[in-house]
Design a protein that fits this description.
This protein has 16 helices and 26 strands. By secondary structure, it is of the alpha+beta class. The protein folds into three domains: 96 residues, Tumour Suppressor Smad4; 190 residues, Beta-Lactamase, CATH 3.30.450; 208 residues, Alpha-Beta Plaits. Helix 2 runs antiparallel to helix 3, helix 2 runs parallel beside helix 6 and helix 10 runs antiparallel to helix 11.
């Protein structure tokens, strides 16, 4: 004769042990018991003593075991098992079987199955309407202000227990596809009186309600079913359970599960009336819960978009399909690349203070992203202490270069202000910014599973190289000729100026770039005068025309700055004489 054990929640978790004359112990931990049931946390380390004698199995619950042992559907601390009988501890069934007899794998059918269409449920009158209506009226307000999904789901379960007095436990469940095999997951559970969890729901009921019927179903296991009463669910305190499916949006396969114990002395109302009312109440709660889940999902999607888009852009996109909005497309964009100067060196010097360095980096990224978003740009990427933003997508914008330039100048001002403020986290720090304009693919980039909103094309590399070249020219902001050309008119002269610096060949690239500096108005502190700007461009014209003597004279009159030093160093390198084969380009020897 064998004792067979199996988990009703997972048929793969089972064992068969041959009984011999004498006693063995049963429990969850092998060091405490002879026969181990490791999959069930409701079984104590040492739970019962089993004695096989004269063709019968005597089962005795150990005094320190926590959970009950159920025999014939009733809790019992000591009983005798004959072949063909079963007992249950927690979520595990134990059966006394002949050698070779198959282990049961399917749960028995319920004694009563109750299911109603929406139309039928609407015709049902509650047996205790006042209490239920009060719970329903308070439910939207309770859920709407839940700070997290966990709190949100717990409030729903609390409302279920409040509205169904006969319920002992409620859970949010979902059917998941695990490598082609559908499994039931209990996402959240709540028990009346706050007792510990451990609910093992009826898989048969959940699959029928969520996957097959797509409507609420109630199963009831009444007296007179014999041993089948023990197997319908994993918790023998319950003799009925119901499951109400949720709408497929935003996630398919979810439902509300409620279980309890209804006694025969149900009062003046019939068992059928009470359980029909319970089914209707659970479905109404599921409808409200499902609708609010959809609202929260929309809010979450909106919050996600706000991380990338400014409010004016979001308003313009309202009502459009999000997948269509994010679809990649080729368009003209303006890319801004901004990098924090000095963080790497400081991090190397104070390796043990990395959290403090990261706090400074976060402060810098906040300045960058705030200015990009405020000027209707899109946050495209973060790379350590650098941020990338772009304009021209998802909405076409004729003034995108101006918006990008305003963002760049805003970043420059905020960094300058912080660097000059003692005690500020960014005191002593600076930044470099590169702006480039051109054609690119913008939108949702990546794979189906992993993607980001970004931009792809040579213009991105050009912006990155310009940002890097700010160190070479020792200026805060550089832009390419395409971007500079759109700022060279009277409409922008009162808030932005451009200074042509040189024609360069970036290291590792084959195309030359006319490098320009973006400057704030001359009235702002820390910038060159308008006269000096014009004189530098006159010196650059002479430099490119190979009139290096004139260029040297003009540069000599100017205040010292990085751009002036670049031209002077290049001329000194060639002994003040332009090479015969020189093509006006300064080739950079490093990034």
């Amino acid at each position: 004769m064998d004792l067979v054990a199996w988990s009703s929640n997972d048929p793969l978790k089972r064992w068969r042990r041959t009984l011999q004359e004498g006693s063995v112990t049963l429990g969850r931990k092998g060091e405490l018991s002879t026969w181990e049931v490791p999959w069930d946390r409701q079984i104590s380390g040492l739970h019962a003593t089993l004695t096989w004698k004269d063709g019968k199995l005597e089962v005795r619950k150990e005094p320190r075991a926590i959970n009950r042992i159920y025999f014939h559907g009733n809790p019992s601390d000591q009983f005798t098992l004959t072949p063909g009988e079963q007992f249950v501890i927690g979520g595990t069934t134990f059966a006394l079987q002949d050698d070779g007899e198959a282990t049961p794998s399917e749960l028995p059918a319920p004694q009563i199955e109750l299911t109603c269409s929406r139309h039928e449920l609407q015709q049902i009158r509650y047996a205790d309407a006042d209490e239920r209506i009060e719970v329903l009226s308070a439910l939207p307000g309770m859920i709407r202000f839940s700070p997290s999904d966990e709190d949100f789901e717990k409030r729903v379960l609390a409302a279920l227990l409040q509205g169904i007095p006969r319920a002992d436990a409620a859970a949010v469940v979902c059917v998941k596809d695990d490598c082609g095999k559908e499994e039931v997951e209990v996402r959240r559970e709540l028990h009346r009186g706050g007792r510990a969890g451990g609910l093992r729901p009826s898989r048969r009921l959940i699959f029928k309600a969520i996957c097959r019927r797509r409507q609420s179903v109630l199963h009831s296991w009444g007296p007179g079913q014999g041993d089948s009463n023990m197997s319908f669910t994993m918790n023998m305190d319950h003799n009925w359970a119901l499951c109400a499916p949720l709408p497929d949006e935003p996630t398919a396969g979810w439902g509300l599960y409620v279980a309890g114990r209804l006694r025969e002395d149900a009062g003046k109302h019939s068992r059928q009336d009470l359980q029909t009312g319970d089914l209707k109440f659970a479905e109404l709660v599921a409808d409200i819960f499902g609708s609010l889940r959809q609202v929260r999902d929309l809010q979450r999607r909106q919050t996600t978009l706000e991380r990338f888009f400014s409010r004016p852009v979001l308003s313009a996109l309202a009502g459009r399909d999000i997948d269509e909005v994010l679809k990649p497309r080729q368009t003209d964009v303006t890319v801004l690349m901004c990098d924090l100067r000095g963080s790497c060196r400081i991090a190397e010097d104070t390796e043990l203070e990395l959290p403090a360095i990261w706090k400074r980096v976060s402060e810098a990224l906040q300045i960058m992203t705030t200015n990009i978003i405020d000027k209707d740009g899109v946050i495209g990427d973060f790379q350590g202490d650098a941020a990338m933003g772009f304009w021209g997508w998802p909405l076409d914008s004729a003034g995108q270069v101006e918006q990008a330039a305003r963002a760049a100048l805003g970043i420059r001002r905020d960094f300058l202000r912080a660097a000059q403020t003692p005690g500020h986290p960014l005191h002593g720090f600076s930044c470099g910014i590169g702006l480039a304009h051109g054609s690119a693919v913008a939108g949702r980039l990546g794979t189906h599973d992993q993607f980001k909103v970004g931009v792809f094309g040579p213009v991105v590399n050009r912006a990155a190289r310009l940002e890097s070249m700010t160190k070479f020219f020792q200026v805060p902001i550089l832009l390419d000729d395409s971007a500079a050309a759109k700022l060279d008119h009277q409409r922008t002269s009162h808030w932005a100026r451009c200074r042509r610096l040189a024609k360069v060949l970036p290291y590792g690239m084959t195309q030359t770039v006319v490098v320009n500096e973006l400057l704030p108005p001359a009235v702002e502190p820390g910038t060159i005068s308008e006269r000096d700007r014009r004189d530098y461009e006159a010196a650059l014209d002479a430099f490119l025309a190979k009139r290096w003597d004139d260029a040297k004279d003009l540069l000599h009159r100017l205040p010292r700055d990085g751009a002036r030093a670049v031209l002077q160093t290049f001329m000194q390198k060639h002994n003040g004489t332009p090479p015969a084969d020189w093509d006006d380009v300064i080739a950079l020897e490093a990034k």
